[in-house]
Amino acid sequence: MKVSAVVISHGHADELAVSLPVLAPQVDELLVIANVPDSLPPELPPAARVLRNDRPLSFAANANLGAARDCLRQYSPSLAAACHSGRVFCDAYSPDGEPVVRALDESGRIVFAGAANGSGYRLAPAIAAQATDLLHLTRSEGATGDHQYV
């Protein structure tokens, strides 16, 4: 199974300087999208690929555009620069057909939740509950500090 990470930066270079080196060894490929100027840390993991947007885009547009441009660069490099929008759909499958929810680091602060075999929308509440349990959060207390409510 190949694991790819698409990270979209909206101006959080300091946080990315810490998180990208932790994420990079956990994935087979790392694509970082600079959504606004000066949104990347001074140093990136060596294998990270970077796309810079001409203008800020929404999360979905960034993910789709980044994946579309990346695919075009691989198969038709001359068309990649001409791509200004795109839609990319993916069903991620696990080897045993079950969704995967697990911690990626020793501290348990980075959790992978996916590979729902085309049923991610239907299984999202249960997958979110498992991720919440791994992060040692309860739905009633939510998260604190730099985390969003669960």
What does this structure look like?
The chain is α/β, with parallel strands linked by helices and about 150 residues long. It has 2 domains: about 5-80, no CATH class; about 90-150, no CATH class. The protein contains 4 helices and 5 strands; from the N terminus they run E-H-E-E-H-H-E-E-H. The chain has a 3-stranded parallel sheet, sandwiched between helices. Strand 4 (about 100-105) and strand 5 form a beta hairpin. The protein starts with a strand and ends in a 16-residue tail after the last helix. The relative contact order is 0.12.
Kindly list the characteristics that best describe this protein:
150 residues; alpha/beta; 2 domains; three-stranded parallel sheet; two-stranded antiparallel ribbon; 4 helices; 16% strand; globular; disordered C terminus
